Amino acid sequence: MTEPSANEHVLTERPQAHPGVLVIRFNRPEKKNALTEAMYLRIVAALELAEADETVRAIAFLGTEGCFTAGNDMGDFLAYALSDGSKLPAAAVLLKALVAASKPLVSGIDGLAIGIGTTLNMHCDLTVASSRSLFKTPFVDLALVPEAASSLLAPLSMGHQRAFALLAMGEGFSAEAAREAGLIWKVVEPDAVESETLAIAANLAKKPPQALKIARDLLRGDRNLVLARIDEELAHFKERLKSAEARAAFETFLAKKTI
């Protein structure tokens, strides 16, 4: 059987009912939408096309029923750990593309939002989550460190203790806890996530684009600070990926998945 391509694992849509909206959908449900290197690059390409297309006014991230994404594909993590480490991880390329995005980003979460499935939302302007969603970043449990400038953005939005619980202790946050912490904006029932997310994106797409861009830039602040923190985290992340304790953690995780 032919392995599905990244084009099938990351779908892009322009819903007719919502002019001006580009949907980027994670579509690898058999692997809980775990993101591979090819998927990251597919998302980057979609963001770059959206940036160049004046008819795209807002971008919406969605997953599949019961799962936004379980985070980075662990097989790719292990492959990097066994490589010479010279290649920039595709996840880092995506993170910088998110920071560079000039158009509103919204996300709709239903179910699992693990690792980058949580930190991606820190770069979104509005996030809707279902009442059954779970936000969790098991970085330290995998002998890794926070990424996506989350070590900068999370304390700013939720304070040190909540950020530490999420990013260092690896505590899972329910949708309501995430809303109270300022990680997401709204909690809805599972069957309303997609419609609510697309309605928000469509609403943003109707607004005067230049005025919205200026307002968004003012709210988001200095992108250079975010990019600098991404680079700082990435240096630690790459070092940790090559560490013996990280390799052991990946192998233990993958062994459990095969039992």
Concise synopsis of the structure shown:
Helix content is 49%, strand content 15%. It is built from 12 helices and 10 strands.
What's the helix and strand layout?
Blueprint: H1 6-9, E1 10-13, E2 21-26, H2 37-52, E3 58-62, E4 67-69, H3 74-82, H4 90-100, E5 105-109, E6 112-114, H5 116-119, E7 126-130, E8 134-136, H6 150-158, H7 160-167, E9 173-174, H8 175-181, E10 186-188, H9 193-205, H10 209-220, H11 223-241, H12 244-258
Key traits:
single chain; globular; 259 residues; six-stranded mixed sheet; Enoyl-CoA_hydra/iso; four-stranded mixed sheet; 12 helices; alpha/beta; delta(3)-delta(2)-enoyl-CoA isomerase activity; 2-enoyl-CoA Hydratase, Chain A, domain 1
Task: Give an overview of the whole structure.
This protein has a single domain, classed as 2-enoyl-CoA Hydratase, Chain A, domain 1 (Alpha-Beta Complex), CATH 3.90.226. Strand 1 and strand 2 form a beta hairpin. Helix content is 49%, strand content 15%. Helix 6 packs across helix 7 and helix 6 packs across helix 11. By secondary structure, the protein is α/β, with parallel strands linked by helices. It starts with 5 loop residues before the first helix and ends with a helix. The chain has a six-stranded mixed beta sheet, sandwiched between helices. A four-stranded mixed beta sheet has the order 4-6-8-9. The model has no long low-confidence stretch (mean pLDDT 94).
